[in-house]
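Example 9 (inverse folding). The structure is encoded as follows.
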C-alpha cells in the first residue's frame, strides 16, 4: 500500500512537471513568451554592451548633461516614474552647478500645474523665509499642484525646498527659474459640474 501511494505521488509530480514544461513550451512557441529565468539570462546578456561602456572612463552624468547645452538650446531629461525620488536629486545636481545658472537658468517640468506658476514665482522671489514658511509654501504647491483631485507622489517637495535655498545666494536676475507645464486647475472654483469640462 505504501509503495502504491509513493508510485501515485511520483506519477502525479511527474505529470505536473510535464504539464508545466509543455505549457511553457507552448507559451514560447505560440506567444513568444520566455520563462522568467531564461528571460533573466537573456536580459543579462543583452546589457553587456552597456556594462562595457560604463566600465570605460566617461564624464559624470551632470557634466554630460551640462555639456549638451554647448550644442543645444533645449535638453530633455526623460522622467522615470513620478514616485522615483533620485531623479529629483539629479535634476538638483544639474541646476545647482554654477554653469547651469550662467548658461541656462530655466527648468521646465511636467509636474506642477501652470495655474500655480505665479505662486511659485512669488515664493522663489521672497527672500529670507523661515524653514517653516518654506515648508508651508511647498506644501501649498503640492496640495494645489495636481491636475486631478488626488496626488500621492511626494518626491518633488525636497527639490523645491533646495531650489529655494539655492536661489537665496545669487541676485534676482541670476536665479534659477522653475516652470510648471501641466494643465492648469483652478481648484477653488472647480465644482463637480465643471469637472467634465476640465478633463476635456
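The amino acid assigned to each position is listed next.
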Amino acid at each position: 500500500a505504501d509503495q502504491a501511494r509513493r508510485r501515485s505521488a511520483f506519477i502525479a509530480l511527474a505529470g505536473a512537471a510535464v504539464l508545466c514544461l509543455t505549457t511553457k513550451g507552448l507559451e514560447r512557441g505560440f506567444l513568444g513568451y520566455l520563462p522568467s529565468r531564461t528571460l533573466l539570462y537573456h536580459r543579462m546578456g543583452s546589457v553587456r554592451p552597456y556594462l562595457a561602456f560604463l566600465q570605460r572612463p566617461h564624464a559624470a552624468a551632470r557634466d554630460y548633461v551640462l555639456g549638451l547645452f554647448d550644442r543645444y538650446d533645449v535638453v530633455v531629461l526623460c522622467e522615470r516614474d513620478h514616485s522615483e525620488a533620485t531623479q529629483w536629486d539629479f535634476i538638483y545636481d544639474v541646476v545647482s552647478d554654477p554653469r547651469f545658472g550662467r548658461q541656462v537658468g530655466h527648468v521646465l517640468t511636467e509636474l506642477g500645474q501652470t495655474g500655480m506658476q505665479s505662486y511659485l514665482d512669488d515664493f522663489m522671489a521672497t527672500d529670507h523665509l523661515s524653514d517653516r514658511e518654506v515648508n508651508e509654501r511647498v506644501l501649498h504647491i503640492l496640495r494645489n499642484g495636481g491636475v486631478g483631485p488626488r496626488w500621492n507622489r511626494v518626491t518633488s517637495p525636497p527639490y523645491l525646498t533646495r531650489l529655494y535655498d539655492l536661489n537665496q545666494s545669487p541676485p534676482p536676475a541670476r536665479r534659477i527659474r522653475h516652470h510648471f507645464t501641466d494643465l492648469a486647475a483652478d481648484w477653488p472654483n472647480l465644482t463637480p459640474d465643471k469637472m467634465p469640462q476640465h478633463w476635456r
